[in-house]
Specification:
This protein is mostly helical.
């Protein structure tokens, strides 16, 4: 990894990762919902596994945010992790880490589990079945 591939600070230094526009306070990244922290962690882990560089990530996230602005979506910062998740999905498909049909199936399964879950209860989604080997 080259210095240009690394975020401004990282796990090696024990400080939080920093990305432009990311909501944060003095303690690090802010997450309004658990899925946001999970999406953040997934991006970090995929980078650490060598699936993309920070430069690729930054460019893809910038493209996603610009596309949303181009569609007229106003962003007050509350949609930052929506863009983050869309970027993750797009990069994972582009890198062939995830088949689009598998992603679509999982999203549909989650939506059904959400609809079937009583208000106030956590949504439980069973593990995705493994494809036959």
């Amino acid at each position: 990894m080259t210095p240009s591939d690394q975020p401004e600070s990282g796990a090696e230094s024990g400080t939080p990762f920093e990305f432009p526009g990311q909501p944060r306070d003095e303690g690090g990244p802010l997450f309004a919902e658990p899925w946001q922290a999970q999406a953040f962690a997934l991006a970090v882990k995929l980078h650490e596994a060598g699936h993309f560089t920070w430069k690729e990530w930054s460019e893809a996230l910038g493209e996603e945010i610009a596309a949303a602005e181009g569609r007229g979506e106003q962003d007050d910062g509350s949609h930052y992790y929506d863009h983050w998740l869309a970027t993750l999905e797009r990069l994972m498909a582009a890198k062939r880490l995830l088949e689009p049909a598998a992603l679509r199936h999982r999203k549909e399964a989650w939506a059904q589990a959400y609809r079937d879950t009583p208000h106030g209860k956590p949504v439980e989604l069973p593990p995705s079945p493994r494809p036959p080997e």
